[in-house]
Design a protein that fits this description.
Radius of gyration: 19 Å
Number of helices: 9
Number of strands: 2
Distance between the termini: 33 Å
Order of helices and strands: HHHHHEHHEHH
Helix content: 55-70%
Shape: globular
Strand content: under 5%
Strand order of the largest sheet: 1-2
């Protein structure tokens, strides 16, 4: 069983590139809609109970059902990624590696470390770049989402100790 953060990570591993809030909506909406096609009064009662007792753990079956139930949901896009990166770069064509690292790791509850950040840059072939072209960065990130490296390949992207 996975907790909420782990469930969101699992969804991201399945290719969902959405903000936490949208992933949480997917997790809770599917849980609330899981009552099936019963009578509306029964469904209403179940929904009220489920809203009071929000799910906190998800198993593989739940997660695959959520993924399947949202197959027609609009996922993120190259344009959204480019827009977000341009916002971080103050509408410039390039963003400095240090600025992107700062945004990536600045929050105390950030799940990524500087080592993780370096591994991602390695995986997309931008390890040594000090300035990252927003268009190139977004295309390479999207390419790796669509064609992720194997675990063995990821070892090659680990920063040297």
């Amino acid at each position: 069983m996975l907790d909420k953060n782990q469930a969101k990570s699992w969804l991201r591993c399945m290719g969902w590139c959405l903000p936490d809030e949208e992933l949480e909506q997917m997790l809770t909406a599917t849980a609330m809609g899981a009552s099936g096609a019963g009578a509306s009064a029964t469904r209403s009662g179940i929904l009220k109970t489920m809203q009071k007792q929000e799910r906190t753990r998800w198993g593989l079956k739940h997660l695959t059902d959520i993924n399947d139930a949202n197959q027609d949901k609009r996922n993120s896009s190259l344009a959204r990624l480019q827009t977000a990166l341009r916002r971080l770069s103050n509408n410039r064509a390039k963003i400095s590696r240090d600025r992107l690292l700062q945004f990536t790791t600045m929050h105390e509850d950030s799940l990524l470390t500087e080592e993780d950040f370096n591994q991602v840059l390695g995986a997309i072939g931008l390890t040594n770049n000090k300035q990252l072209d927003v268009e190139t960065l977004s295309l390479k990130v999207l390419d790796r989402i669509c064609d992720p490296p194997s675990v063995a390949e990821m070892v090659d992207f680990m920063p040297a100790a």
